[in-house]
């Protein structure tokens, strides 16, 4: 029997993850008190093959009950029951934004600021994260991208040794992405915005792409960027980094940065890297 324990930071996507596993044929239970995990696992085993894949969510919503999780997992180990831990996390900025959008209170910040609740939760989950078999950072993931990552791990047998590379195009006039690990400025390239026929187009259009990439400096930049990324990736993995955010910016985030981000995405996909692409400012009103 495959038994998956889903946990992690509040607002990181645990509820979505368990829905995706349910769609994949897992028998799922949300917010199961840790004290019941062993008993629940035994019941599933007694079905004699009737239940072959199980996933549960347990997190700080359980209050004091959640403190029993470590002892419950140790009890499973003593009983010879194997389990896997899927840990979901996201950046502080992303979690705050999600909570403000949903207008919900953080479980550990009932009487205070959301950020304090998030920091307290990170400390509480530190040891559990270290035990996790899989860690997914949903900071720059859409719902569909999270679904693909779940499929990659639990259907395709994927592993997490490979870095997840997030490529973000952006406009400097809207601010630099706060979570960017590597930030590149492509405003040195000629700007298609000032050519009337391309002003309303974007880097997703062939006409703009051909214009941007016809310049020798654009091709040389891409070559040097790929060389640097190839150099850095093994060292990031060695240091335990699970996600790399590469931000590429131009003035408005519509033409040059989109073209270069698309190009980098394709090149890294060809090298069989796990890549996620986002055009942050493509549809801003000023563009």
TrEMBL record:
**Amino-acid positions noted as binding ATP in the UniProt annotation, renumbered to this chain:** 8-15
Q: For GTP, which residues are the binding ones?
A: 59-62
Q: Which residues form the RapZ-like N-terminal domain?
A: 1-154
SUPFAM superfamilies per the UniProt record, alphabetical? P-loop containing nucleoside triphosphate hydrolases (SSF52540)
One Pfam family this sequence matches: PapZ_C
Coiled-coil parts of chain: none
Could you list this entry's UniProt keywords, alphabetically sorted. ATP-binding, GTP-binding, Nucleotide-binding
Superkingdom is Bacteria
Which terms in the Gene Ontology molecular function aspect does this entry carry? Answer: ATP binding; GTP binding
Where in this chain does the record put each RapZ C-terminal domain? 164-282
Q: Which InterPro entries match?
A: P-loop_NTPase, RapZ-like, RapZ-like_N, RapZ_C
Q: Which NCBIfam families does the record associate with it?
A: PRK05416.1
Q: What is this protein called?
A: UPF0042 nucleotide-binding protein
The species this protein belongs to is Lutispora thermophila DSM 19022
Upper taxonomic classification of the species?
Answer: Bacteria, Bacillati, Bacillota, Clostridia, Lutisporales
